Amino acid sequence: MSETSRSLNFIEHIIDEDLANGFSKEKLRFRFPPEPNGYLHIGHASSICLNFGLGLRYDAPVNLRFDDTNPAKEEQEYVDAIKKDVEWLGFEWDTECYASDYFQQLYDWAIKLIKENKAYVDSQSSEDVAKQKGTPTEPGTNSPFRERSIDENLNLFKAMKDGDFKEGQHVLRAKIDMSSSNMLMRDPILYRILHKAHHRTNTDWCIYPMYDWTHGESDYIENVSHSLCTLEFAMHRELYDWFLNQVVEPNNVRPKQREFARRNLSHTIVSKRKLLQLVEQNVVTGWDDPRMPTISGLRRRGYTPESIRNFVDTIGIAKRENVVDVSLLEFCVREHLNKIAPRVMAVLDPVKLIITNYPEGEVEWLEAENNPEDDSAGYRTVPFSKELYIEQDDFKEEANRKFFRLKLGGEVRLKNGYIIKAERCTKDAAGTITEIQCTYDPKSKSGSGTEESLRKVKGTLHWVSAAHALPAEIRLYDRLFTDATPDAYKEKDFMDFVNPNSLEIITGYVEPSLKEAQIGDIFQFQRLGYFNIEKDATPERLVFNRTVGLRDTWGKIQEKE
């Protein structure tokens, strides 16, 4: 949809109204502010596309800022992964920023608050602070340390900074209103003591600012005009503005916080804490496991940046939260891969097929179209011989009229090849079919123009030449959770809904053209789905991940249940 024809979302309406009321377009600046305490997931994609999309729409800079205020949970690994994900999605940031860059300024502003009698050092335990906060219907009570003198607060705060106290011994709190109806305004904590090394500042600091104190002031330092966050921060807006009121200069840009709804995805969790639990308990192999809803996991599985951006654009920006069916995300990647993925042939559950009247030792190289959706994709050749592999479930000894694949006495066309007829089959002691004997019509070759080649048969099967096919490890990924909302139950743990069949590893056979495929290359295995070369693959060992099937089979399974 073109920029001119699509309707504006409510965030764009807010920005347009600000511009109409005199805000300078040159002062527009946005930011994407992740905390580096985990990998980005599909939920972050909406925020990334929103902020960077606004930057593109209004020709305004967008900062990538890491809100790195908790050294206990943050790591450089996460910083590197976040940068890689944003770049992979196709966006460029103007300035790379870190909240830790502003630690000194934040500290200086905290000193200013103390001197203005707007902050104090509280020496209560965290349990006592929580009790004294009150409830949503009952006001809180003042800390016994709330009226400490300015000098005592300054001395204690400096000693906190110098590392003279143990963790939990003191905190710095803003002095606002313990009877406020908004509990976040009841003397929120500004600083806590943490004797932990920071991934950027090492051990320079023994105190670390809280998120609410850091976030808005960082926006202000960076001249961010519109600070966009999800709905859970709506109650924080009053505190965001109070903190800004303490430092904003009249001629500087004052950030405006506005909230949009988080879009939850069915059969998925997006809590970093719970995703980390999956990693630590070895339910998955890491943050980039192809079953994970992380952007790196989706990338490894074979999703494309275009498909994720299209998904985000399709669900849009809203004011109310809802659950989006994961099948929409799968539809978006399926739609994009259909346009770009080369078609190849692979057999995942092979049974041997012998063409009894085909010349012994002969090999033909048949022409095959690479992508009917792309005229420039060209053609390749695939080997055809007497012994082939087809899928086990593409053959039945007896079948009803609706079975359009191969059955005894029946005919099908082999893709790009000949019409064959099943004559008989061989079984092992358990009754499993181990070989199918067929005959072929040598005049029925696809594209030859003969009368026989134009004859219509109802079924067309994919295949590979047994002598030429390459063995490959195939990883068949499915949804990680069996329930649409695995973390929505108070009486059950989300781990109870882990899908025990979320990964099946099999050995299949692929056509020899894939020998030169590179890690990350994506293909459509004809009639089977979309697959990409897994990063574990080597030149001697092909490994494929299933990105998505050709159809939404999960939905059909659920309908039956």
Automatic annotation (TrEMBL):
<dbReference type="InterPro" id="IPR020056">
    <property type="entry name" value="Rbsml_bL25/Gln-tRNA_synth_N"/>
</dbReference>
<feature type="short sequence motif" description="'HIGH' region">
    <location>
        <begin position="34"/>
        <end position="44"/>
    </location>
</feature>
<dbReference type="InterPro" id="IPR020058">
    <property type="entry name" value="Glu/Gln-tRNA-synth_Ib_cat-dom"/>
</dbReference>
<dbReference type="InterPro" id="IPR020061">
    <property type="entry name" value="Glu_tRNA_lig_a-bdl"/>
</dbReference>
<feature type="region of interest" description="Disordered">
    <location>
        <begin position="124"/>
        <end position="145"/>
    </location>
</feature>
<dbReference type="GO" id="GO:0016874">
    <property type="term" value="F:ligase activity"/>
</dbReference>
<dbReference type="Pfam" id="PF00749">
    <property type="entry name" value="tRNA-synt_1c"/>
</dbReference>
<comment type="subunit">
    <text>Monomer.</text>
</comment>
<dbReference type="InterPro" id="IPR014729">
    <property type="entry name" value="Rossmann-like_a/b/a_fold"/>
</dbReference>
<dbReference type="InterPro" id="IPR020059">
    <property type="entry name" value="Glu/Gln-tRNA-synth_Ib_codon-bd"/>
</dbReference>
<keyword id="KW-0547">Nucleotide-binding</keyword>
<dbReference type="Pfam" id="PF03950">
    <property type="entry name" value="tRNA-synt_1c_C"/>
</dbReference>
<dbReference type="InterPro" id="IPR050132">
    <property type="entry name" value="Gln/Glu-tRNA_Ligase"/>
</dbReference>
<dbReference type="InterPro" id="IPR022861">
    <property type="entry name" value="Gln_tRNA_ligase_bac"/>
</dbReference>
<feature type="domain" description="Glutamyl/glutaminyl-tRNA synthetase class Ib catalytic">
    <location>
        <begin position="27"/>
        <end position="338"/>
    </location>
</feature>
<feature type="binding site">
    <location>
        <begin position="35"/>
        <end position="37"/>
    </location>
    <ligand>
        <name>ATP</name>
    </ligand>
</feature>
<dbReference type="InterPro" id="IPR001412">
    <property type="entry name" value="aa-tRNA-synth_I_CS"/>
</dbReference>
<keyword id="KW-0067">ATP-binding</keyword>
<feature type="binding site">
    <location>
        <position position="230"/>
    </location>
    <ligand>
        <name>ATP</name>
    </ligand>
</feature>
<dbReference type="InterPro" id="IPR011035">
    <property type="entry name" value="Ribosomal_bL25/Gln-tRNA_synth"/>
</dbReference>
<dbReference type="InterPro" id="IPR004514">
    <property type="entry name" value="Gln-tRNA-synth"/>
</dbReference>
<feature type="binding site">
    <location>
        <position position="211"/>
    </location>
    <ligand>
        <name>L-glutamine</name>
    </ligand>
</feature>
<dbReference type="InterPro" id="IPR049437">
    <property type="entry name" value="tRNA-synt_1c_C2"/>
</dbReference>
<feature type="binding site">
    <location>
        <position position="67"/>
    </location>
    <ligand>
        <name>L-glutamine</name>
    </ligand>
</feature>
<feature type="domain" description="tRNA synthetases class I (E and Q) anti-codon binding">
    <location>
        <begin position="460"/>
        <end position="533"/>
    </location>
</feature>
<keyword id="KW-0648">Protein biosynthesis</keyword>
<feature type="binding site">
    <location>
        <begin position="270"/>
        <end position="272"/>
    </location>
    <ligand>
        <name>ATP</name>
    </ligand>
</feature>
<feature type="domain" description="Glutamyl/glutaminyl-tRNA synthetase class Ib anti-codon binding">
    <location>
        <begin position="341"/>
        <end position="441"/>
    </location>
</feature>
<keyword id="KW-0030">Aminoacyl-tRNA synthetase</keyword>
<feature type="compositionally biased region" description="Polar residues">
    <location>
        <begin position="134"/>
        <end position="144"/>
    </location>
</feature>
<protein>
    <recommendedName>
        <fullName>Glutamine--tRNA ligase</fullName>
        <ecNumber>6.1.1.18</ecNumber>
    </recommendedName>
</protein>
<comment type="similarity">
    <text>Belongs to the class-I aminoacyl-tRNA synthetase family.</text>
</comment>
<keyword id="KW-0963">Cytoplasm</keyword>
<dbReference type="Pfam" id="PF20974">
    <property type="entry name" value="tRNA-synt_1c_C2"/>
</dbReference>
<keyword id="KW-0436">Ligase</keyword>
